[in-house]
């Protein structure tokens, strides 16, 4: 996991978290809903990191944890259409997406092992040879 319930609780108050997750009016934080928001943020992050880093990340850099918390909090707010999402939350979401784009492009480095370059490590094999050609070089030169 890139972030936890405890990480989210450091960013928003207990009352706000209950308001955003308590669909059954129990007066408690619904951890299933929080977990779904965390899965959303992890999936989004992995989508940006795929192809550049080996996934899933075993060592979570601090910047990824911050991005995961911001994306998860935004997801929790977006569940409540009747509640206006604070501008600060919207801004953090936009900044998180920008940072992910920069990480994807290599502008920001996470300081962890990059995925091996496919062109350097791949071996291409084929069962075809010159005799399998439909058009020989002589035939092609006729045109």
- Oligomeric form: single chain
Secondary structure: helix percent: 40-55%
Shape estimate: elongated
H/E element string? HHHHHHH
Distance between the termini: 60 Å
Q: What is the mean pLDDT?
A: 88
Class from helix and strand fractions: mainly alpha
Instruction: List low-confidence stretches.
Output: none
DSSP helical segment count: 7
What's the SSE blueprint?
Blueprint: H1 5-9, H2 14-21, H3 31-49, H4 62-78, H5 87-105, H6 118-121, H7 137-141
Helix pairs in contact: 3-4, 4-5
Mind explaining what this structure looks like?
The chain is an all-alpha fold and 143 residues long. The chain is 54% helix and 0% strand. The protein has seven helices and no strands. The protein has helices at residues 5-9, 14-21, 31-49, 62-78, 87-105, 118-121, 137-141. The longest helix is centred in the first third of the chain and has 19 residues, at 31-49. The protein is elongated and about 80 Å long. The mean pLDDT is 88.
């Amino acid at each position: 996991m890139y972030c936890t319930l405890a990480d989210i609780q450091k960013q928003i108050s207990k009352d706000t978290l209950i308001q955003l997750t308590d669909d059954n009016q129990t007066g408690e934080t619904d951890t299933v809903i929080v977990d779904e928001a965390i899965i959303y943020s992890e999936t989004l992050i992995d989508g940006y990191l795929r192809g550049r880093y080996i996934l899933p990340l075993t060592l979570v850099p601090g910047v990824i944890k911050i991005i995961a918390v911001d994306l998860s909090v935004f997801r929790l707010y977006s569940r409540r259409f009747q509640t206006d999402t604070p501008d600060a939350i919207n801004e953090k979401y936009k900044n998180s997406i920008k940072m992910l784009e920069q990480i994807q492009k290599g502008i920001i480095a996470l300081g962890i092992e990059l995925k091996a370059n496919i062109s350097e490590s791949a071996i291409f094999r084929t069962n075809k040879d010159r005799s399998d050609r439909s058009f020989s070089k002589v035939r092609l030169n006729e045109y």
